[in-house]
Amino acid sequence: QVQLVESGGGLVQAGGSLRLSCAASGRTFSSSVMGWLRKASGKECEFVAAINWSGSRTYYTDSVKGRFTISRDNAKKTMSLQMDSLKPEDTAVYYCAESTRYTDGAPRGSYEYNYWGQGTQVTVSS
């Protein structure tokens, strides 16, 4: 059974930084694409970033390129999202998700991820 648990959300001023973490259980973590998706109030779930099974390739949505960095540690079964230069439009609930269908690439649809964490709120004030 796969379980994903996020931590690290909170309230920050525009221009500030936060680091989100995701702790995974289960045997599939080290062979899966892992991703971060977010859902702002009143909006659809949006792809933010993904990382391939080994951590050698990363993918980002255009709005966060150069500001966010995704990483993973397969030995510890953890994934992180370093968020710098945060903007009010980054405010959302952020979800850690695992896609066992892929070992590489950037699945961008929420339907392509089969395991999800409970989400962590990130609020950026102006």
Folded structure, characterized:
The chain has 126 residues and is mainly β. It has no helices and eleven strands. The chain has strands spanning 3-7, 10-13, 18-25, 33-39, 46-51, 58-60, 68-73, 78-83, 92-99, 115-116, 120-125. Strands 2, 4, 5, 6, 9, 10 and 11 form a seven-stranded mixed sheet that branches. Strands 1-3-8-7 form a four-stranded antiparallel sheet, with no helix packed on it. The model has no long low-confidence stretch (mean pLDDT 96).
SSE layout and pairings?
Layout: E1 3-7, E2 10-13, E3 18-25, E4 33-39, E5 46-51, E6 58-60, E7 68-73, E8 78-83, E9 92-99, E10 115-116, E11 120-125
Parallel strand pairs: 2-11
Antiparallel strand pairs: 1-3, 3-8, 4-5, 4-9, 5-6, 7-8, 9-10, 9-11
Summarize the structure.
This protein has 126 residues and is an all-beta fold. Helix content is 0%, strand content 48%. The chain has no helices and eleven strands.
Which tags fit this structure?
mainly beta; 11 strands; 126 residues; 4-stranded antiparallel β-sheet; 0% helix; 48% strand
